[in-house]
Amino acid sequence: MTYELIEVEKRGAVGIIRKNRPEKLNAWSRAMAAEEKDAVTNFNNDPEVAAIVFTGNGRAYCAGLDLQQQQAEVQSGDASRRAGEADEHDETWTDFCTESKPIIAAVHGYAVGVGVTTILPFDFRIAGESAQFGFRFVKMGLLPEAASTTLLPRLIGVGRALDWCLTGRFVGAQEALEAGLVRDVAPDDELVDRAVALGEELAQNPDSIMRRVKSLFSQNQLEANIGLVQQREGEALEWAMQTPEHAEAIAAFLEKRPAKFR
User: Fold this and answer.
1) Which of 140, 106, 136, 135 is nearest to 122 (CA)?
2) Is 9 helix (H, G, I), strand (E, B) or coil?
3) Which helix (H) or strand (E) holds 128?
4) Are 28 and 114 in contact (CB under 8 A)?
């Protein structure tokens, strides 16, 4: 696929995806989402890449839905038709991220609406000092989407999630850090470097094991049947014990050297 709305690069063991509509504050569109999904797939298939960083060019990470596109869809009736169907992006993005190598969001400036809900399934979120998160759906006569009504409360609690979604107010980087939405706050000019450094740290771990850890958390975090949780963990552990990565870890320990997984 030829990319027109994003840019991609590799920095060491980290793949970087940059939203590239700076003149529109990287407003989200279905075409952009398709390009991002293709880029993630390519990085997942690249054995040299251990982690993926999402960021944006210009003054914002993503200012939300492309309203010009939305207006055209509303006028044509496409928006109401899609609302009555399963939106492919909403339906699959969370599962897609869960099955991916670790994904890190490096957010500066505005992350609004779909620009923030689509980073909730990511594994890590780092905010630049300028970051402003906005679940402003009520301000637009819309409702939260992309599984955010379950993912956001899991991250920050129901009370805060309702506060942010019912008021539609902007949330700064420090409040997002205190709430647990982001793991770190960095100066804007160090933001991507901070995210890449985290990706390089993850690169010291085996890909297959990290992806299986993500899968277990996805399956078990709301599972009430503890027996089933332990069964899944046991099956995963039995699988892990047979992997070359586990054998390498044992050999490295006995030989008193760093393990080489990549």
Assistant:
1) 106
2) strand
3) strand 124-128
4) yes
pLDDT number for residue 66: 85
* DSSP structure class, residue 238: H
Phi first, then psi, for residue 117 (nearest 5°) are: -65, -30
Query: Which residues are within 8 A (CB) of 51 and not within 5 positions of it... i.e. 6 or more apart?
Result: 13, 14, 15, 101, 102, 103, 104, 198, 199, 200, 202, 203
* Residue whose pair of structure tokens reads 């952009």 in the numeric block: 32
Q: Are 117 and 149 in contact (CB under 8 A)?
A: no
* Alpha-carbon dihedral sign for residues 19, 154, 141, 170: negative
For residue range 26-64, what is the model confidence (pLDDT) as tens digits? 999 999 999 999 999 999 999 999 999 999 999 999 999
**Amino acid letter for position 100:** S
Tally the C-alpha atoms within 13 A of residue 172's C-alpha that lie toward its C-beta.
Answer: 4
Pairwise CA distance, residues 179 & 188, whole Å: 20
Give the C-alpha separation, 135 to 234, whole Å. Answer: 39
- The CA distance from 8 to 41, in Å, is 12
Q: What is the pTM of this model?
A: 0.91
Could you identify the residue written with the tokens 């890590």?
Answer: 124
- Alpha-carbon 3 to chain mean position: 20
Task: Show the tokens assigned to 14.
Answer: 């980290």
- Identity (one letter) of the amino acid at 241? M
In sequence order, the 6+-apart residues with CB closer than 8 A to the CB of 208 are 243, 245
Task: Name the 3-class secondary structure at 206.
Answer: coil
